[in-house]
Amino acid sequence: MFARTRGKNRQVHEIAPDEIFLDSSNLPSRDEPQFEGRIIRPVAGRAILAVGAVCALILLLFTGRSFDLSVIHSAAYADISRDNRLDRSVVFAERGRILDRTGRELAWNAPNDSGGATTTSFAARRYSESPGLSHLVGFVRYPKADRSGAWWREEYTGVSGA
Q1: Bigger pLDDT: 43 or 7?
Q2: Which pTM does this prediction carry?
Q3: Which residues, other chains included, contact 133 with Cβ-Cβ below 8 Å and sequence gap of 6+?
């Protein structure tokens, strides 16, 4: 079926009756606030193009900013990143005191007077001079650092005894 308008042939599609007429029995109960009975128009092509253009503009802005940060100013941000690292420092926990039943100290911590080259120090373990307690109280292995000050053993290790 063709219709002639201003010298051009246009194809005319048939229109279904339910697109034109409302069912006369449902007309009184039609709920207009719920948009019953309205014919919905499709989204206009200009609106789709406008949304696409806005999305393309935002994508272009993000791409430009990413190029600016990762290529143009990369050296400056690499320096900031290198300076932003956490330094690792060793903190030595002190071991507890060992007391006999009368409250006399059998083992305790005292300031380390080894005079090492490192700035980090740890408490030295001191023991009572009472004879026969060495097997009961035991001893510890101390933290160790190499000549450059890097700690290769970072904790007290109980070797034997309490």
Answers
A1: 43
A2: 0.35
A3: 106, 127
